[in-house]
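Dear colleagues,

I hope this message finds you well. In preparation for our joint manuscript, I am sending the Alkyl hydroperoxide reductase AhpD (Rhodococcus xishaensis) sequence together with its predicted structure, so that both groups work from identical material. I would be grateful if you could confirm receipt.
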Amino acid sequence: MSVENLKNSLPEYAKDLKLNLGSLARSTELNEQQLWGTFLACAAATRSASVLREIAEEAADVLSAEAYNAALGAASIMGMNNVAYRAKGFLGDEFAQVRMGLRMNIIGNPGVEKADFELWSLAVSTINGCHDCTAAHDAVVRKEGFTKEQVWEAVKVAATLQGVAQALVVNDILANA
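The corresponding structure tokens are as follows:
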């Protein structure tokens, strides 16, 4: 099992991440597609090859091909949008009404339930540190009926996977020092 491989690869100082990873993989707040789509999108957003490899393997056993592709699509499109929307904020009021001018067709037609895609986009946006995108996707999923507990579960997946990726990088650096 891939989550088990990640847990086993973490050093002792990352015990909390091991515990969090295990409990999140058994979440009851999100359905299976929502949970594993969040795991996959966030694994891609961490930019860690080992985290993505392990999560992708397990997600492929759970998600339909459409959901698998949509989760990776959420990570990809948010990789672009989070940079662009943060830049608009950095550049100030003069850029507030500037047309984005970037293709984002997958947001309108993700191949899965729009609410699930929006949840994955929210989780990726938290990893990428985009306040505007996180808030905008939260508003959409809440309007679609997601509870604050479900939203927070997706954020916990994002936070934990980012922590796992960081711990693995640190461990590799120290092992090769």
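For the figure legend, we might mention the following. Residues 41 and 104 are 17 Å apart (CA to CA). The first helix runs from residue 2 to 9.

With kind regards,
E.M.
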